[in-house]
Amino acid sequence: MEDKEEFLKEFGDYYGYPNGPKTIDEIRATEFKRLEDTVYLDHAGATLYSELQMESIFKDLTTSVYGNPHSQSDSSSATSNIVREARQQVLDYCNASPKDYKCIFTSGATAALKLIGENFPWSCQSTFMYTMENHNSVLGIREYALNQGAAAFAVDIKEAVDQDGASINSVTSVKLSQYPVQRRNEAEVLEGELTGDAYNLFAFPSECNFSGLRFSLDLVNNVKQNTEKILEGSPYSKGRWMVIIDAAKGFATKPPNLSLYPADFVVISFYKLFGYPTGLGALIIKNDAAKLLKKTYFSGGTVSASIADIDFVRRRESVEENFEDGSISFLSIASICHGFKIFNNLTPAAMHRHTMSIVMFLKKKLLALRHENGASVCTLYGNHTLKVSSSDSGSIVSFNVKRPDGSWFGYREVEKLASLSGIQLRTGCFCNPGACAKYLGLSHSDLLSNLEAGHVCWDDKDVINGKPTGAVRVSFGYMSTYEDAKKFIDFIRSSFVSMPSEFEKGYLLRANSVPYPTEGFENRLSSSGCYLKSITIYPIKSCAGFSVKSWPLSTTGLQYDREWLLKSLTGEILTQKKVPEMSLINTFINLNQKMLSVESPRCEGKLQIKLDSDSYLCGKEEFYLHSQRKEYKTIKYGLIFIYEQQYGNMHKCETLFKKRYEVQCYENEINQWFSNAVGQPCTLVRCCHSQYYLSLNKNRSMGMCRDVDSRMNFANEAQFLLISEESVSDLNDRLCSNTQKLSGGAPLYVKPMRFRPNLVISGGEPYAEDGWRNLKIGNTYFTSFSNTLQFLFNLYPPNCMM
């Protein structure tokens, strides 16, 4: 309570709608009861509809009859009236006179942008200019421009500031820093031949969906009236400039006042405003701009008359009817009136003050977090102004998390752990590649090498070559609370802030086998009470393993562990995520007989493969796997351990790895047995040699990391995977609590073997192993540099398996 009192002391005049019809606590209690056990922090992706809003919509749709507006019936007239009312509400919200503007309904902001791009009067003398901070849906307009011979380039906005750090909003204060010009048909026009007759287009977001930076709407007038001055005499400044505002993110709390900033086009999406409906957006278009768009296609609703067997069509004259192809989504349009009712009651200004008070609080707390060595925990992106009254910051906080040594936690790790804690957020680049590269310091070379490494949008490759490929983003809506931000801060502090650990010293691995623990080991870790519970070997990747009391070690880890795998005929590696039948394949290795035994309920008889016989083999082949990791070689004992820091007597080889495998292939009889077992054609291969190659070194050539003389088989990330029963038990307690609160159903229960570990330990506190550096099991010494349990959760969440 003291924390909240301190918060209210600083932000009480802004937080919670003190002068509104309801306080924030009343809003959450009556309109968002479903958020009782959920912290929702992705309002920039999609905000939430209120229960009162949906009740009003349901009542409207169940008591009214709305027909297709392309008719003259009473139900059609009712629809036309509600659509007309909705158009006016959209225009009123941004203070746009219907004499100057029209509202065209689309399937979303993306569809509105596409409509502009494909109908704009491009020529070889046109220019498409856009800020680096733009969504992919805006960048897509570039394709239309370049295909028509126009030039395109990105710009950075440079504004003069006063002594207090506030922007000076005047024509002379704004300068545009131009990136290289792109042109596909450069021979058609020379720079010296550019004239003032062309139509040009400038696009910028009202709020960057990556960083939350708000752009000054003075850009509208500056670009339309003074392009030559702000582009400092560039030949591309000539011609008539038109302006797009992408208001998909910023429209809710800071709608553009179009009477002061007369942009030609403004695009919005309604689900980003009030959560429902989805699949509906709008293009607010200036009447003069609408006359310039060259629409080719016509459809039902857009023509006054057409003749089927001759080239004749007469289009409708109204702007809306000309551009709204087919029947509009009239039931969704009827729904937005109820969303605007909520907004008009709260007011945009009050919603802005409320969300900004939470944003400023969160930024201050994240910037203040420190590890035990004094290193900062979070790196924030965008504007760091900590004033609620600031006009250049929105409801987004974007950041990444660092370890004490300065290396990065992966953003996917943050997202998955947040999800386990009931916190919903978003990670990645958020379809904003320019802002992502700009704030993360990613060069063109970085972006291309990341792509070559297999990194694409929405994947799990969150750190490559020591650099984040994206960020963590939390964003707030009008119904967000102080408690949401406080729970998120507590989550970051408990999950990622380094505290002193009692396990700081130990010894390196130097034994030849892993026995059960001896008395000496138990004495050594008497303070934690830990002991080794089980050892499990998985000979065939993703198939069932078997437990043993002791097992020999090799340079690959546990001998024979993940030494075989199954491949499809197209070369794809089979895993349980793709082929669940693999979990039914049981394996066992008899060391005395040197025999691998395999059984499946889908196959008759047991398959037995001699480990030291070549009679089953039919040749060798090579294939490559790409991965990102930092490898370490222990000098004394020649074993590789994987982590993201440098400790002690280690040589570090940090880069993007291309792992080459030389494998032995098996004869058709064995392949057929496995094909029957998994229900699809496949082949069995055995790792006989692996080697790590750098995919890119300083001179952009292929090379090998010479310090790595040990190897792994087909394990994903490390030679040994360790997990503790207490950590899994803590996870089960959280899963059980969340399940009962959310659905009241039977509690979930996850067993340690769900994570397919090699070593299961018991005793001690949950997650104590996260702080271990070295470990002794019996007379065998291990060095571990990963937060093992977190690492496993990151790779294999409870609802999926390797």
From TrEMBL:
One of its GO terms (molecular function) is lyase activity. The modification N6-(pyridoxal phosphate)lysine is found at K272. Its EC number is 2.8.1.9. GO terms for biological process: Mo-molybdopterin cofactor biosynthetic process. The keyword Transferase applies. Keywords: Molybdenum cofactor biosynthesis, Pyridoxal phosphate, Transferase. InterPro entries: Aminotrans_V_dom (IPR000192), MoCF_Sase_C (IPR005302), MoCo_sulfurase (IPR028886), MOCOS_middle (IPR005303), PyrdxlP-dep_Trfase (IPR015424), PyrdxlP-dep_Trfase_major (IPR015421), PyrdxlP-dep_Trfase_small (IPR015422). Residues 691-802 form the MOSC domain. It catalyses: Mo-molybdopterin + L-cysteine + AH2 = thio-Mo-molybdopterin + L-alanine + A + H2O. Coiled coil: none annotated. The gene is LOC111276021. It is an enzyme of class 2 (transferase). Belongs to the class-V pyridoxal-phosphate-dependent aminotransferase family. MOCOS subfamily. Pfam families: Aminotran_5, MOSC, MOSC_N. Sulfurates the molybdenum cofactor. Sulfation of molybdenum is essential for xanthine dehydrogenase (XDH) and aldehyde oxidase (ADO) enzymes in which molybdenum cofactor is liganded by 1 oxygen and 1 sulfur atom in active form. It comes from the Eukaryota. The active site is at C431. This is Molybdenum cofactor sulfurase. Its cofactor is pyridoxal 5'-phosphate.
